[in-house]
Amino acid sequence: MTPAPLQGPLRGKTALVTGAAKRIGRAIALSLAEAGASIAITFRDSEPEAAQTVADLRALGVDAAAFQAELRDPAQITAAVDAALAHFSHLDILVNNAGRYETAALESISVDQWDAMFETNTRAPFLAAQAAYPHLKAARGRIINIGSLGGLHPWPTHAHYCTSKAALHMLTRTMSKAWAPEISVNCVAPGMIVTSEVDPEFEHFARRTPMKRNGSAADVAAAVLFFVTGPHFITGQILSVDGGLGL
User: Fold this and answer.
1) Predicted confidence (pLDDT) per residue in 139-191, tens digit
2) Alpha helix positions (H), the chain
3) Residues labelled catalytic
4) Which of 92, 112, 170, 231 is the most buried (most CB within 10 A)?
């Protein structure tokens, strides 16, 4: 039996969440679906996980589909947005969640490492937003980028990552001015987010955090839901979800 469509603030809306087969992206997709939105997700290599996420989304009573895309390839980004529109016919929300993370000494970062980081973390959100722009404009839609505490504070062993996320934060603000008043554009900047139940490796971050715990994927998803369902008037904001770790 097909579940009855959810009643919620996002019923009738369609969201595209990049990199949502697992971890934070999956939590975001499920949160938006629980609010009633139909969901398109992209994935790169995680096809089994993407299929399971789609099944879990549909079990909530919404339409859902997954589209494979290597987001370092501009043509595949455009194709994924087009495929989502072909399936759902309209697009109201874009969540640029897919990202790349790597630890490397600054003096050892290669050109290929630098470019791969920026292609995924900064250029892909730009291209996805550009491809979705006319549809989001028509829908008076919303874009939420997933930045990072590392885009606000320098981490010496993550220079290319931090710089790419800082650029994404500025892109958020630039897009918010360029595409107002039709589209609101905001950014969620997570701190230390732990996606497994027990991970002693990161407990020292919890001890340094004023809220005395690390963040969860659900914390990030709740922040995204706030920007998606809150006043359209809120735009150009970078919201840290870090328990005070960055203070």
Assistant:
1) 999 999 999 999 999 999 999 999 999 999 999 999 999 999 999 999 999 99
2) 23-34, 47-59, 74-88, 111-118, 124-139, 159-178, 203-208, 217-229
3) 161
4) 92
